[in-house]
């Protein structure tokens, strides 16, 4: 064999071993925890930067300060990140016990928001409760996490009754339907759509027959269609989705300018902070349509990065669900993953024109304090589940034992040094 061929074989062997070492990281016991934390913080960092960029013009026009909207989002992050890290260290039984309490809190708030004078109606949707300091609380966001944990707890407790699927669904579905109906009464069809995949994936795991999904899905679609046809602004959204150019200066304005922002960005974008659409042309630039500003300022590469991060979050969540021995963890994980992925798909689909605009924020990225805090809490739950994987839990226990041993050795050494110094002084 020639020296050139030998050199090529060696180079390929080195490249192959490098690839194996990189892929070996995925087999590390704490790989899911580390990756999920990295992806979450990456999305949060992109979101904070883009909220500041997209909201700067509106902020200075409204309050005279370029930081007014960003300050609220940053404050929410200051609450959400410690909450996420704290939840990531909670044991499994903490979430099992907290699930019914959280569901009760969510239901009470979902009812309160419908009471005039308590709930705040913005844009035809009454799904906020006014809080001190200019903040708004959105109970439906709490309902997402509550339904994921409570549903997982209930279905896992009834695992012995799965042969009788009616006995499984009757306790679960009425409560889930109540949450969805309360959200629909607020006028928030977009959020109601996010709940449905969460409910569906949990029922799929427990083995509910497919015909049940066909019947239930048909009823829900008819209900959503009825609500869309009976409300003028929802019908207008659907018509605008089909043909935004029919009313370019009215209902189609936001959709058209969202596409213009994406088209203007090209491959690499016009530069961070250099968006032209945020100067009053694109409504909700820092909220529902922040993905359009990402496309304009960071280009196609930026949008692909954001979508890839959401994809990676979903894949890591699936790994957690597959590796766990706990049915509760599996059910809660797939519900939270369905929530994050579905909401991101609905938001991005509305911006690029493949779905009607529903007013659903982009998780971890769009402006919105309640959404950000509760999404970070949900990621904290997933991080805790990642730490509960059998191999991860064994590694954490071994590390804790090693630290205790090292601490005892250090204490013994300090005690020995102290005794030596005492003896020397006595002599």
Report the order of strands and helices: HHHHEEEHHHHHHHHHH
Number of strands: 3
Instruction: Categorize the overall geometry.
Output: globular
Model regions low in confidence, pLDDT < 50 over at least 5 residues: none
User: Helix/strand-derived class?
Assistant: mainly alpha
- Report the helical percentage: over 70%
The number of distinct helices, counting runs of at least 4 residues, comes to 14
Estimated share of beta-strand residues = under 5%
Describe this entry's structure for a reader.
By secondary structure, the chain is mainly alpha-helical. It has one domain (30-387). It is built from 14 helices and three strands. It has helices at 3-24, 31-62, 68-88, 92-112, 139-157, 165-185, 189-205, 210-230, 232-242, 253-265, 290-323, 327-352, 369-387, 390-426; strands spanning 119-122, 125-130, 136-137. The protein has a three-stranded antiparallel beta sheet with strand order 1-2-3, with no helix packed on it. Helix 2 (31-62) runs antiparallel to helix 11 and helix 12 packs antiparallel against helix 13. The N and C termini lie far apart (78 Å).
